[in-house]
Structure prediction request, 566 residues.
Amino acid sequence: MKFYFLIYLLIFSNLCYAQIQVHLEVDSDTMSLNEVIGVNVKIVGARNTSTPIINTNGNFNIQHEGSSSQINIINGDTTISTSHQFQLSPIKPGVFTLGPASVDIDGKEYTSNTISITISNAANLPNKERNYYVEAFLDKKEAYLGEQVIYTFKLFNKVQLYNSTLEIPKFDSFISESLGSEKSVIKIINGVRWKETEIKTLLIPTRTGVFEIPPASINAKLIINQSFFGAETKPVRLISESIKIRIKELPSANKPSNFSGLIGEFTISASIEKNNIKRGESTTLTLEIAGIGDSQDFPEPVIKTNDFKIYNDKPTFNKAVQGNQIKSVKVFKKAIVPQKVGNITIPSIEITFFNPASGKYESKSTQAISINVLPSENGEEEFKLANFNNVTSEKKNINLLATDLMPIFYHPGVLEGNFTKKIKMSQLYVFNILTFILYLFLYYQKHIKNKLKIDIKKLRKNKAFGVFNRQFKNIKNQANFCSQASTLLREYLGDKLQLDGKSITTIDLDKIFSPSKISKQTHLELKNIFIKLDNFQFGGVTISDQEKDDLIVTLLKIVKKLEREL
Prediction:
């Protein structure tokens, strides 16, 4: 017993006086843009430390992968250390300094060494000779301000990639809108099976000048060795080229005076509710502006005429993505009230827009519409406006023409008998009681609303399974099955945990679910289903009907488990 106590005392004393050191290590000090290397921060003399912070100087993306601790006893000397593992991916080519790494231990900051890393461009191999590659491109190299531009990102792979995560660049100086979920096809090229995954984004430039769209990237894992005991994987990072585009001003030559900023290709149509109406009635004029482009800001068309009055209704607007274009429809409704009997004409209405396809300003107009105005049924003559020009300010005497059938009382006391006073008191009591009841009702309503605001998170959590189950029933027959299943699972977790479900990744599961939240088995099954769905979406894996059925059963089973445990 004394022997073990002495060993423990020796270890404890050595640990207490060990000098803390921080070492920064990398797998390689040279790498290319499409590679990922491992980084290790080793802290000697301390256990269970916080995650170190590595200074990347904005030249690298870095992700913490985990940590481990160990104790070594050599010739009576005890060494304790903690190692933190990271994955490092470069942003641009060049020679850069990584580090130092710093960690806070008991209020004191310890720093490591620095390492110089050389980053070269991706290996200059033809794309078809690689196992996987990415491409990003625009459908045009220059465009006009407000013109629609299509950004396309493609992943090609002939080997399976796992845990793929796509990073689309930020489109500064552009309005961006997704053109739907990813589309995957299988192609056979020279006898080799390739999977092509495509994602498209619609861009609308908001400024003129030359702009560079940053590269897009995919982080994934590639299996390099698989055995009975598991698989050895290698991190892979695929980066597209940056893209330059020139945005031009709209031409000033031949610019119409009535141009309102409408850009695209549009038509305008006009229709009238009734062509034959009687004087005093109204009819509705409908104007529809439709075409390729965004017409939301197009102003109300003005019709100048003295033949009828116009009352504008609130316009309606609808925009949708069709194919690879944004198409919009804006509808104006106007109530037309004729001011005279006979044939009146609604003049032609013209719109002007800039068509980027032709590079010219173009106009479209409606046909003039005739309305036949009939006299009203009572045969009255046409409306005549009062002539106020002859009105004089001369004051006229008031003449008594007749008297009222009932007497006129000049003060309230005349009406107040005893019976009237009793009625007034009873009305006052009833009014006070009703006011008090109304106050109680409004107070109760406010209380219920406040309670609903407090319970909204609980309501979202309680309804998570019902929302998932309703949408999950018809998922099998959808073309993008894996994408929809992945979205439903993430949204379910988001509702259940009060998070943004769509942003949850496989790596986040370890951070979100502590051991006390769900069982280890459920955690492992959830992680596996995330990996499977990602593989079917972004890896070179084609899902069969049987695999769909198995995946549906597994997914529903896991969600039911989570429903019980969360």
Residues 5-17, 380-391 have pLDDT under 50 and may be disordered. The two ends are 47 Å apart (CA to CA). The longest helix spans residues 418-454. Residues 294 and 425 are 65 Å apart (CA to CA).
